[in-house]
Batch of 3 targets.
Target 1
Amino acid sequence: MTLLVLCAVLTPLTGWAAPAAAAQPHDAQARYFAEQLRRSPVHISDQVPRTVPRSARPAFAAQAERTGVPTYVLVLPFSVAIDGKDLLSAVHDRLGRKGLYVLLEADGGGGWGDIEVMTYAVRVPADRAAGTAKDWLPDDATALDLFTRFVDGLRNGGDASGGGWKPGSLYTSPGAREVQSAVTGALTVVIPFLVLLLGVRSCPRHRGSRGWLWLPLLAAAALALIVPLGARAVFGDTRSTGDPAPTARDMRLRIERVATGLRESPVYVDAESVPALSPAQRRSLAERLHALDVPVRVVVLPLHYGDESYGRAEAFAERLHETLGQDGVYVVAHLGTFDRITVRLANHGAKLADTELHDLDAWVRFGPEAPDEGPALHRRLMALADHIADTPQGPPGRPDAARGLPDPVADDTVPPLLSGPFRSVVRAGAAGAGALCAAWGAVLGVRRARRGGRARAHARADAPTAPHTAWLRRTARRELALLHEDFVRLGGTGGDRVHGHVWDCLDAATLLLDQRGDQRVDADARDCDLATALVLIRAGQAVVRSAEQPRVLQRTARVCTLNPLHGPAGESRRLTPSAGARDRRQPVCTACAAALPGRAPDGRRDTEREVRLRLPGPDGTVAYTELPGPLGTAGSAGEIVVRDLIRDVKEQLGVHG
């Protein structure tokens, strides 16, 4: 009976005691945050400068004013705000003010984690606005984006979606920038290329029409500039986040806060986190550290990728040592999630043996292995103090400098649009477009020639020994047009070798006669070039006439060395290539062979001088072998091979292939 009475009495008491016990872990946090909110209704933790720098506070304050009710905002890392509802309730109890209380988790990965809201004596659809804001925002949204969308929901009856489609992303990631650069590079090549092809295709095809080619060329060049510049205006993002870039002051705030605390006591416990050491434990640990022969400073706080040290205990200790300017052993106890606390130490100038100092027991470094046991941080740190006391002396510690920390501004900066993949795609595309242009130009030329071709008999003018310039120009122009028509009509009927040989003759002759590309014989064409082109034209005509006969290329491979305008050489005679040279057999045409005498050398040389082709020179006509150029060089050597002549002409003009 007595037991029942005791249960009846104690049950209400335990019910009242439970909330008090539950709120107790957040008392120290609540006091700290309440004091911060008295100074400003928006508090941004100094532990997340890479993701939400404190310099962004004016932007959060501007959104808080839009709610229309007193609003208090806390922006904290996940490890601090893990029990958001309880923390907000405790902060309200300490602050004692009505209004809307908002806790935003600044995820160390670079976005937002969650939002918790509570209202006291104000009526706003806070819970619905928070839920719809989280559902609507994509993964790359920031804490400021979440708070802004939440406020929009408050002003829209709780609907934070705004009635629109959920976006896939709000900002440009490095991967998305690579895709944008590659697409821009492809468009920079493809669009001007298509415009150029269509423009060339649409140009008039009458004589002198090449002047119109400037229009598509200019249009393509303009588009090659407009496309990338326009894309750069459209894809103008320079950062992969919407938060302002952290300042140097943002990156120093937590270090300075901890340094200030360490100047008062060798033990500092993060004021924003649930205390991992009680006041009594701090005092006993501080007394133990003061008794050591070397200075030791202990810092208990969370580390994560969003802080100034990128979550690295060694980097934090190095910056703390630089700020304090005091040598000693720096111990960093990292407050992780699920009550896991990891202890790291760094020796900056203390005279202790480095190997023995870092030979820590696993229990001291990582804590109990059983997940249901507490972190036992005080006992571990006291054991660490004993370990330091037992460490023998050694040279002053000089740990390696912390390297490889990402720059907080560069880490969120996306590469310029017109770099990297853009340049690679443009180079590859330009090479491919050039090859396609060449192929398409050849196709258009063949099609244009086929439409205008006419079957007509070959007209072969005579070949005077000393032609004048007008005759060379007139004959070359007429026979070039005839060979072009014959080439089109021949098509592939003569076989690939025949067709290709005629094209080579036609191409080389055109290069000599029409270097301006206006489909006319150049007015300043030299006599030796006119004669060389006419030799090539007639070599091509000989192949066309003999297209149906076997071994045609062999019988038209050489031309008459006395007068190349006569065409292919069917016989050979002993001749003198040049003055002072020895006689040797050279290819000549049938007409020249018949004109030469039998065995009398003197008479033969006189006949050679009379029959050999002479061209206008500076002081009258001279033998063609005495003039510069591929034709004269080959003739003076005693053999004019058509393919070698084609090659030499192209080399003279700087044309390859």
Note: The two ends are 115 Å apart (CA to CA).
Target 2
Amino acid sequence: MGTFVHRLLDYPVVLATVAVAAVGGLLEATGDGTTARWVVSVYAVGVALLQARGMVADLRAGNHGVDLLAVTAIASTVAVGEYWAALVVCLMLSGGEALEDYAAGRARRELTGLLQNAPRTAHLLGPDGEPTDVPVGDVVVGDRVLVRPFEVVPVDGVLESDDAILDESSLTGESLPVEHVRGDGLLSGAINGGDAIELRATAAAADSQYQRIIALVREAQDSKAPFVRLADRVAVPFTLFAFAVAVTAWLVSGDPVRIAEVLVVATPCPLIIAAPVAFMAGMSRSARAGIIVKSSGTLEQLARARTAAFDKTGTLTHGQPRVTHVDAEGLAPQDLLLLAAAVEQYSSHPLAEAVVERARGTGRTLPPAQDVVEVPAHGVRGTVDGRVVVVGKAGWVAQESGAAPASSDGDTSIHVAVDRRLAGSLTLADELRAETAATMAALHRAGVCTTMMLTGDGEQVARRIAAEAGIDDVRAELLPQDKVAAVRSAPLRPVMMVGDGVNDAPVLAVADVGIAMGARGASAASESADVVITVDDLSRAARAVQIGQRTMRVAWQSIAMGVGLSVALMLVAATGSLPALAGAWLQEAVDLTTILWALLAVRASRAERVETARMTEDVARSRADRERAATVDDGRTAALRGA
């Protein structure tokens, strides 16, 4: 409660407007309408003068927009005695500024949160080999650092242990664990595996990879061009037209009252209220769909998106290695899988879990293994039902079996030998999401001209995934700064970028619209993004574009309706046929009509419902195709077993 009150105190104009409304309402209720009019009118004029001072400064700087129309509306409504309408404009004006300030403050806090996520402590090894915890900023080049199991590597360095297995997915986009040997370079931000390792620092924390990513995020956010509000584009011509009609009516009739009669029906409520209502409705609808849109300007950028860029790992794919193929020699594929899983279930290697999960998915019970020995960086050996099973790297299995395994054609493979004979291999890959291809097709139908993949993965794997997904442009083996450069140089704009890892944070910040897969992605990506998808479903990226387009259509319809009706009333008032009091009431009706129309953005249009149904069918078809392929594999396995 204290924080809420403190935030309110930061916006005294909002509080003062509410207080004046309460005082004026109380005076009206007690029958003292004259005093109420003076209190509200004097306050409204004061707000208009304050706003006019800021407006003059903006005009000198070359900026103009809805504020000019708001000041005009306050002055004209006070002049004709519609002081309550003037107070409503004051509230909308001050409330809008408060919301903008809140959004800017939120962006600053999110960047601060990214800084707070950086490693803070390092285990510095002394001459006696004993670790001492020190602030990560105290580590200098040449220091020996201990990284315990599952900790984040605090600084860039060179591995001094014999081997290490690191999860670098948040930095490079590589979903599979990366094996390193003594002398390899390690990046800060990577997550250590199940064994403690030692490294020698090659950079201070401020110069390490994680901090470079943070610097890129800050630079990207600072370089974003300011967004021009939708209402600002209509405000100036509408204001000039209203003045022209009012002055012309005065000059033709010779009656200065005509100015007030025209201006009272030229209030900017369709711009100040209706358009924000449409955007709020669109943002509310997005939230219900698991899509958190951080600002109304983002919806407009989504509606106009012409390029959609995607990270691969965890975005287009599941982000976890899975066994995609079993190649057996002399054994049924399912039997080979069970033998491999029987020894892998005792391994701490990250890929072992994928093998065990696939084997358990067959519905058969894993047999126990005896005399299991894990050789770091090579593989696992054990005895299963009296048979010696060796699972691991090609070179090691070749030594055990005397036969060289076939190449894996760019995919990650685990090779298997049984009783010193090569028995086959298991291919592991990061599988494409079932909804990926349907999402690309839906984006193209929505008007997105180009889809891109920006990934740190190898060229061969990236092109295979892109071909399956239906992506137009593939950029592989990219560092975070390369992704930023690719988005900045994209010819068709606006550009929306979808990602999920720490390495995606800079490019999400520099894109016109950054979309983070926040259900399982890194917090750094969510913090630097404009949109966060809270469910693990890539198709929501296409849904966000559709909602943005629907919101923009409704907002423009509301503005066109409000401005059109106001223009018609102005023309009638210019003839002297519409008294100011009647015009004020009619203008209230116009405002109500435009606001009610703006609320339509909370519902999907018929075209959207058709598109959603089509996308759902495409995803279901993709899943069915995969299940059918799995059934064919099972049939082949059964046939081999029968043979």
Note: Residues 153 and 484 are 24 Å apart (CA to CA).
Target 3
Amino acid sequence: MSAPEDVSTPEEASAPAQSRGRRLDIPQGGPLDGAGQPGGARTAREARAHLHIACGPARMCADPAPYPLPEGPVPREELARLRRLHRAVPEHAVMRDHLRRTHLVALCGEPGTGRAWTGLALLAELAELTGGGVSRLGYTGPDGASGVEKTERGHGYLLELPADHAESTAESTAEPLLDRLRAHFAEHEAFCVVLVAGGPAADRLLRGRRHAVAYRPPAAADVLDRHLTELLADRPAGLLETARATARRPELTEALGLDEPRPGEAARLAGHLAAHAEGRLSDERLLEHCRSFAPHQAREWFLEAGHPGTLPAALPALRAAALRIALAVFDGSAHSVMAEAAELLAWELAVTLDPQYAPGRPLFSARPGACLATARAVHGEGVEDLGDASVPVRAVWFEGRRLAPAVLHESWDAHHNLRGPMARWLRALCDDPRPQVWVRAAVAAGVLCARDYLYGLVELALPLARTDSPVQRMAAATALAEASRAPEVRPAVNGLLHDWARGDDERERETAALAHGYGLAAGSVAASLEELGRLARADDGRTTSYSVVRLLAGAEPETVLAALTHWLRDTRRARRDLALLATLRAATTRTSHLWGLGEVPELEPYAAWPLATALLAAHPECGPRLAELLRAALTWARSAGAAEDALVGWIRRAAGDERQLAVLCDFLPRLAQDGDEPLDAGAATRIREVLEAL
């Protein structure tokens, strides 16, 4: 059982020079000895931004046209509609000339980008010149396509290689298949467009420059406008302008959460906008439909990977799924961090599918950006914060802010057998000392715990809290605090932390103290402070004081300062020491090292300053209580030496920054005198010496 609290006599509490017991030292670092502090603030902020998207319910839109498209002749009505609606891509003329000359072209790009329409448009143009028709072929495997034996002269044929077949045969049959098809259609003076999804097969074809073209979709705005014009052609003229204006509304763009819809999505959006303009769809229903676009994309991705077969043929599909999930967790981070996490997850997925097969890694990847394109992702210049410095990185992110949460939720909610490898993967990432890794993994774990607390508790939170790794215990605390954002989960998390705080397991008590440092699990900052006050008796103050100061750097500094002042007058030594240690931390700890899980924009301009200075600059009303706490630390015998050292260091750090020095000079007179309690002569002398040396 934990030891009872040390209760001092009133005389000892009021006569600091006579107080007994060990002297307090300046707390050094946090519970992780610095790990997770430098750079943690930026990482936590980005993780929240990418995984916490405020939104209402999403209504799944009606599915697009059946997949795969029906084989056989393309009806004239469909071709006529295509001619009215199709928007030519910049390379259209080049692709048409290549198709006329070689009789075959492979369009390499992602599903939904308009490849099929472009292929049909190319074939229709040539067929019109030759008097032929246009048909769709069915893929029958590496040996060919159904219906190819009935090839007619002058006809155009569209063939789509299913993504899973293309990936599994990328190494051996994609190029020979195209060679055979090209020879066949050239012999019959016909034309064929083959659709190849992005991935190893497409990359191999593009690198060989044989029959293949990298397909770039038309602008979504052009596709949207053309479809709106078609849908509202026979309606009053004002409806088209209404639909166009609605498409530009910020709330609709926010609901979509995509940087630029793909052509197929633009066509679907046009249908919703037309229905809204005609009064058949309310504003809220329109936004619900828009919110469904990112979840719809995530669902399609995982359906593609739903039948991977056996290893090693399944590895391309598993790697694609792992890449998308890793990107959901590390959206906006360094590409190297995301890529390594994706490989680790791919290994977990592979050994789950086939425990007897140990997959390796491809040493030479595809052309830059090829794999990212399959995840609707791009890379560019970014910056990673290392605390005192920032370094440039090659960053990577989804092309749409709603894709990250959509992928994470879809993988967790709809595919139960993915949970085991994902949980093992996240736990391993939570043991990485780099905040750029463990913070993001912990936030993602918390999001998943909130979606299924019973599973997340057993597979994520408990294993992390009960390890000997301090980083994993901090990750457990972060995940539990993150999960408690959900009102329906918060009571369960609070009850768990309550039991841990009163239990015998030191690791669980520490995790509870760390979790309350975020001010979320107990329902309020005041309630978290009350729990930390109780935990102080079983703690040397290192962890609890860190959590208290983390709360002080949050959104309610006055609440925390009031609690510290109250503890200072408490007869229980553990709480007095907690107040003194927290005060020392405030004067010595950089503000950005005390990051939380909430936004505190008023402290952002002072992130590099000690927290006490930042509070005085951002919240001048905190000055009187801060002065009272620091004055007590300087005059109590147990803390006087440490407080003097902390104050001297505080002043010296401010000497190199005129803004900090100005804030401190305004504060020091308040610290030096308070009614009948002048500052201790020794402390005043040391402060004066420092000021004279500046």
Note: The first strand starts at residue 72 and ends at 73.
